Amino acid sequence: MNASPTDNRAQAERIRKLFSEWIEPGEHTRLFDRFPPDQQERFSLLAGLAPNEQPLVICSLDQQCWTLLTSKRLIWRLANRQTALAWEELADVQLLRRVNPLRPSGDVTTSTLQVITDGGHAHALELETGPPFFGFWTALRLIINTSRRAGGP
């Protein structure tokens, strides 16, 4: 059983609240409605948003690397490939840890989330580091946990 449209609306509001009250906006990541209007229009077209689909949060690292979380899907573009997953397809999200080779101390940097689908496929998302990264991770965990409680994967 999938989450109902009402559940998705409630989740969308929780995600908006998370990013407006708890997550400090990054240089490249923020609530969608806080991006300039011309960029909002561009990403809405690129993502192919449905009329009843609300864009929530976007991380735009550059023209070819961006991630958009909407009220129904997770959509991302990496190089020339764009992928979209419905909320109901999300089964898990994991932090990928990498060692920064430029730091002699071997500091770990985290900028990649791995999203696992209910079919077991893994997808890597490149995101801005810091609070926005953990905001995306938290939002996806919220979606996945709600789906499980509703009888999803």
Describe the structure in your own words.
The chain has 153 residues and is α+β, with helices and mostly antiparallel strands. It has a single domain, classed as Roll (PH-domain like). 31% of the residues lie in helices and 35% in strands. It has helices at residues 5-22, 37-47, 131-149, and strands spanning 29-31, 55-62, 65-70, 73-78, 81-86, 90-99, 108-117, 122-126. Strands 1-2-3-4-5 form a 5-stranded antiparallel sheet, with helices on both faces. A 3-stranded antiparallel sheet has the order 6-7-8, with helices on one face. Strand 2 (55-62) and strand 3 form a beta hairpin. The longest helix has 19 residues, at 131-149. The chain starts with a helix and ends with a helix. The relative contact order is 0.20. The model has no long low-confidence stretch (mean pLDDT 86).
Distance between the termini: 9 Å
The side-by-side strand order for the widest beta sheet comes to: 1-2-3-4-5
Biggest sheet features: 5 strands, antiparallel
Total beta-strand segments:
8
- What is the count of structural domains? 1
Could you give the topology of this structure?
Elements: H1 5-22, E1 29-31, H2 37-47, E2 55-62, E3 65-70, E4 73-78, E5 81-86, E6 90-99, E7 108-117, E8 122-126, H3 131-149
Antiparallel strand pairs: 1-2, 2-3, 3-4, 4-5, 6-7, 7-8
Helix pairs in contact: 1-3
